[in-house]
Specification:
binds adenosine-5'-triphosphate, binds magnesium ion, alpha/beta, Helicase, Ruva Protein, domain 3, 14 strands, about 15% strand, 5-stranded parallel β-sheet
Length: about 450
Amino acid sequence: MSKILIVDDEPRILLLLQSLLKANGYAVETARDGNAALDIVRKGGIDIAVTDLRMTPMDGMALFREIKAIAPNVPVVLLTAYASVETAIEAMKSGIFDYLTKPFKVDDLIACLKRAEEQISKSATSAANPEHPVRYRFENFIASSPLMVSVCETIQKVAPTAATVLIIGESGTGKEVIARTIHRNSTRAKRPWVAVNCAAIPENLLESEMFGHVKGSFTGAVADKEGLFEAANGGTLFLDEISSMPLLLQGKLLRVLQEKEIRRVGGTKSIPVDVRVIAASNVNLEEAVVKGTFRSDLYYRFAVITIDIPPLRKRPDDIIPLARHFIRAERGGTASVPEISADAAKALVAYDWPGNVRELENAIKHALTFYHSGDITSELLPQKILEHKAEQNVSSSSTNASLKSFLKQKEREYIEQILNTTGGDKEKAAETLKVNLSTLYRKLSDD
Ligand SMILES: Nc1ncnc2c1ncn2[C@@H]1O[C@H](COP(=O)(O)OP(=O)(O)OP(=O)(O)O)[C@@H](O)[C@H]1O
Ligand SMILES: [Mg+2]
């Protein structure tokens, strides 16, 4: 049985929360101000603290910081008025476990306490197992640059909460991996992960896709169907390209986030759902709000926690570690995991990666289809990346390529084209090109 400390300067609210929590099987202590609360925390035995934000002389945030200093493992839940949502944003960033906006439902508070309890037991087991708790080490997630390390810090902080998260970044920067990493490191990790790309589903079908429908609600609705919200119950729903969501549906989504219940298309019954929503966008949603294509209230709901992923060109420190990661991923388990040669590394870092991490991943796959033995050298990289480097060289040293090297390069490009059409199958490519397989290999490996 967890012991909860409730702090509020209104005796009426203290009494109410105390009896509600007791009825739900919690042990409860109460305090009417920060100092009294700290006295209780110092005595020990408190598992979770729930505090009002607006109190005097010490407000909820100040109390949170004091509690962190005395009992760093006690999760603190903040109760705020809607108007203080900005403070709540700051609070989440500084490590508040979660916040509830007043007025809230008792069930929300209980659910929040349950999650806090899960986090406590999780960190207790990882503390007992010293092999695990490496900070900011996420499986299959590479972050070497300072910019990405700070993204990791945010992930670490928000993952255990129930907060909705907005992830903004250019195409291919890793929005989906980050959303997944948040899910995997949350208390919902063992519950469903459901992803939907709002841009990929026709407008008229998206609502029924998200909320389900009842039989006969529209032509083609031949049976009752569960929507993605129900499928994701207890887990996380990832709404990709949220800016493509039609305005009308945005309104419905906002209501679902507030009410925590859905209604199937054509249905009358409200179905309760407990789903954490993470949204992603590669366009600036603030601009979409200004243009009137995105609802501002929905935007503010999501923007409480925003993760901005910088494009790869702004974090060159990540390029080589990511490249190595992709080589391991492709070659993992096989005998040889090749190294990247110095000239290849130079070309990779010099390139500006308009397609971001996805383009890098494809470049590595490309190099590995041509790879024979030894290190991964620059000629194995896609032509575009080398051209980019060549352009830079031309401007600095203006060397002219010989006819022979020009022909070789063209030959190379042609072979690559054919290999692309055969999906990397070298035997088929050799057949098409009417050369021996060994000739093809030689042409691919020499320079
Ligand atoms: N930091 C990272 N560590 C490891 N792999 C990464 C990282 N960032 C991106 N990737 C990989 O790069 C590819 C593209 O990432 P992802 O699909 O998450 O990008 P995205 O931002 O969702 O792209 P889009 O906007 O095109 O949907 C994926 O294969 C992903 O696994
Ligand atoms: Mg994506």
